[in-house]
Design brief:
The structure holds 2 protein chains of 2 kinds. Chain A is an alpha/beta fold. Chain A has 18 helices and 17 strands. In chain A, strands 5-6-7-3-8-9 form a 6-stranded mixed β-sheet, sandwiched between helices. In chain A, a hairpin with a 2-residue loop joins strand 1 and strand 2. Chain B is globular. Chain B has 14 helices and no strands. The chains are: A alpha/beta, B mainly alpha.
């Protein structure tokens, strides 16, 4: 490995180079033809909307995912030619700080350090780890006040994040050459965040490289030399930071989707019924309305839907006429019963509605399943087949049918189209539109912009609160992005 | 650090309380001989509890430890005594089987509770094959070891204390132990740092197998003979011991010293109930009641801890 002095002289040796990388998960193309070179001494700001492919890109760079097509070339000087990308990445000094914490809460800070540093010499490791941990914390966050012997679980979230960042920058037998920071400041307060930015700048000046992912555009501008904008799995812009303004950055992030597919919102004349939903955070919905919940993922949309659903449904007893039905986005976690047949999955929500004195009405159940199979074209020859015999998209259709079969006037949808192919999506949009016309209300959280554009009214969430309400023509991708980044209103 | 101290406080207090009650009712128990009698059956229980702790440490649970200990006891009382090479070979193979079970559970993402429940029947079956009716003989050296009379403290106190200290050093202080705890704490973090989870889980299960074997041998050394059903209740005793000792089912939070104390407490609880002259019909229920009481106290503490 080279020493630091040598490195700082050569600015143009790439730490990692991505050459025409493709990556897909089933029908979803997460990355398409990505070219990216990360040079030493460079700080790259990576921005993009939800699902633009940022996380996938990060995982390709750190070797946890092997691209379907294309190549990832690591630093030639790396002393090992390890077989797996993950090992190569580690040997060329690539470290990542993930959004969710990857430390062990049941161990002390120094023990966590030791686990991350795999090849640390074994003799008196506690002392070494304690000193190394204190040193790297002191370097990145002077005055941090964290005892390396403290139990990690006893620290605050911000302190844990600080520990994780410090570990990523720590000195080892192989020093860090590229540190990927994925939303590192989300749980840090302003002072600590600025310490981190200072250190990052310092780190780059000494020849290290950084990829900085953040939705705080201010931070991106503060730190990045180069900004890479991702959109729908592609890199759409890759230019020096100086050429961007806030305005232009937000615009680029949302530039490309204006294509095709007329919105289903050609219904100005349509009258909605009375208001049926009013949440504490200000979200309202009227009868027959499709209300979208937008914003960056994890800013409180799913949580407020879940809270609403829990409030409206009893914990103890299913009602004959439920008020709300729920369509889950994370199928495997809270959607399907994997061991059950299509029919039983479909009728689960309506068992009480259609049942008699606590018994299942078998004929009604059968009829319901057959009805819905035809109406939404579930591709199976027998509804008694196991649900897992269906493709993901068809499973999702069953979940929709399950909710729609109920007489509930309000349907809550928690990003229901995740991992569903385009054809199925179109069918489901049609179903939603028809049902809305019949007077049903939909609350629709989606991470996909074109789905939100189909809504009659949109609430954009930021930091757990509603930052903007968009109606009619104001529902544009640009406005949504502005609001998601907390810039709606001041830039109008 | 404070929470860790609290974790160890409860098993210490509950053992102390029970011991005081026993001494109050039966002052003659407060002697070298009395202590040995009270605690000598605690040695195999403590070993089985440590075995269970290894599995709970990596977020799994072992429902086969009772039959496994019975199986090992049967092997020790027959093959190890008669054909030592085959006997020890078989015990070593059993440890290997445990390690393999851990690797398979992780590699195939199987629920440990199901696999170990299935394995419990396998071990039980082997035990019956080896020793169809109660009997067998303990190897001479084992018998001598378990009836050793060291000065000052009886073996029934020294052995669990040594076990507790040894395991504390290994699990809490050595790096290998820390890594195993890490698997329970955040498997993904450990994996991301480049460690092989399959190997670590196999190691944890292998250690559990080793302590299971030691438990079976210790049991035979004490009872001088074996029976295919000799240690069936160890499954529940060991789980209870780990939890009583401050361990938690998930998150890699365990305490070796606590686990040994928990095993001692559970053994003592049985004697305590005998001293109360409680009819044996009620003893298991009463033992359960003691367990619930202690865990309830812990829950109150834990609640306060999170609230403050």
């Amino acid at each position: 490995m080279k020493t630091e002095n040598e490195i700082s002289g050569v600015a143009e040796t790439p730490v990692v180079k991505l050459d025409g990388v493709h990556m897909s998960f089933g029908p979803v193309h997460a990355l398409t033809d990505v070219h990216l070179t990360v040079n030493r001494g460079e700080c790259i700001g990576l921005v993009g909307h939800n699902g633009a492919g940022k996380s996938t890109l990060v995982n390709v760079i750190n070797g946890r995912l092997t691209p379907g097509k294309g190549q990832v070339i690591y630093d030639d000087d790396a002393h090992s030619k390890a077989a797996r990308n993950a090992l190569q990445a580690r040997d060329s000094g690539i470290r990542s700080v993930f959004q969710e914490l990857s430390l062990c809460p049941n161990l002390t800070v120094l023990e966590n350090f030791r686990i991350s540093y795999k090849s640390m010499p074994g003799a008196s490791w506690r002392k070494r780890a304690r000193e190394a941990m204190r040193a790297c914390l002191d370097r990145v966050f002077p005055g941090h006040g964290i005892d390396p012997r403290a139990m990690l679980g006893a620290l605050t979230i911000a302190q844990r994040q600080m520990v994780e960042i410090a570990i990523a920058f720590s000195r080892r037998d192989m020093d860090a050459n590229l540190v990927i920071l994925d939303e590192p400041t989300s749980s840090l307060d302003a002072t600590i965040a600025s310490q981190l930015l200072d250190y990052a700048r310092h780190f780059c000046a000494r020849g290290g490289a950084i990829i900085f992912i953040s939705h705080m555009l201010g931070e991106i501008f503060e730190i990045a030399d180069r900004i890479v904008v991702m959109k729908d799995g592609k890199i759409v812009e890759d230019e020096p930071a100086a050429r961007f303004t806030h305005e232009r950055l937000v615009e680029t992030m949302g530039h490309m989707t204006a294509e095709g597919e007329p919105t289903l919102r050609a219904r100005e004349s349509l009258r909605f019924g009375p208001e049926v939903v009013r949440m504490q955070n200000g979200l309202t919905a009227r009868e027959g309305e499709i209300v979208g919940l937008a914003g960056l993922a994890g800013h409180g949309q799913a949580a407020s839907l879940a809270r609403f659903f829990m409030e409206k449904s009893s914990v103890w007893k299913a009602k004959k006429n439920p008020e709300v039905a729920f369509v889950a986005g994370d199928r495997t976690r809270d959607g399907i019963m994997p061991m059950w047949s299509i029919m039983r999955n479909l009728s689960l929500k309506t068992l009480v509605e259609f049942g008699k004195i606590g018994l299942i009405d078998i004929n009604a159940e059968r009829k319901l399943a057959e009805d819905w199979r035809e109406r939404i074209e579930i591709r199976t020859d027998d509804v008694r087949n196991p649900i897992l015999s269906l493709s993901g998209g068809n499973q999702q259709k069953v979940l929709f049918a399950k909710a729609l079969a109920s007489c509930a006037p309000i349907v809550v949808m928690d990003d229901p189209m995740r991992g569903v192919d385009v054809g199925t999506k179109k069918e489901v949009y049609g179903m939603i539109r028809t049902e809305a016309a019949k007077g049903r209300t939909f609350l629709w959280y989606s991470t996909e912009t074109d789905e939100i554009l189909k809504c009659d009214r949109v609430f954009v969430f930021r930091d757990g609160a509603i930052s903007a309400e968009l109606i009619g023509d104001a529902i544009t991708e640009e406005n949504m992005l502005r609001a998601s980044f907390g810039m709606y209103g001041n830039a109008r | 650090m404070k929470r860790e101290r609290l974790r160890i406080l409860l098993p210490v207090l509950s053992l102390g309380f029970l011991l005081a009650a026993v001494f109050y009712m039966q002052p003659r128990a407060m002697s070298y001989f009395g202590l040995n009698l009270l605690f000598n059956l605690a040695i195999p229980v403590a070993l089985a509890t440590i075995a269970q702790m290894m599995i709970i440490m990596v977020n799994d649970i072992d429902l086969s430890i009772g039959t496994f200990v019975s199986f090992c006891a049967c092997v020790t009382a027959t093959l190890v005594h008669d054909l030592p090479v085959i006997g020890y070979g078989l015990l070593a193979a059993a440890v290997g089987a445990y390690a393999a079970m851990g690797a398979i559970i992780h590699a195939r993402a199987l629920p440990a509770i199901v696999v170990t429940l299935g394995m419990s029947f396998v071990w039980g079956g082997f035990a019956v094959l080896i020793l169809p009716s109660p009997g067998g003989t303990a190897p001479e050296w084992l018998r001598t070891l378990m009836t050793l009379k060291p000065p000052l403290m009886p073996i029934a106190i020294i052995a669990p204390a040594a076990l507790a200290i040894l395991m504390h050093v290994f699990i809490m202080r050595s790096f290998a132990g820390v890594l195993l705890q890490g698997v329970g704490g955040n498997e993904r973090a450990v994996e991301r740092a480049g460690w092989s989870i399959v190997r670590l889980k196999a190691a944890a299960y292998g250690l559990a197998g080793l302590f299971g074997v030691l438990s079976g041998m210790a049991l035979v050394g004490l009872t001088t003979s074996a029976d295919a059903n000799i240690a069936l209740r160890y499954t529940l005793l060991s789980i209870a011991g780990v939890i009583l000792g401050g361990g938690e089912f998930t998150g890699g939070r365990i305490s070796p010293i606590g686990a040994v104390l928990g095993a001692l407490t559970l053994t003592l609880a049985a004697s305590f109930l005998s001293f109360l002259r409680l009819s044996p019909d009620w003893q298991i229920g009463a033992q359960g009641a003691i367990l619930i009481l202690v865990l309830a106290v812990r829950l109150v503490f834990a609640r306060k801890d999170t609230l403050s």
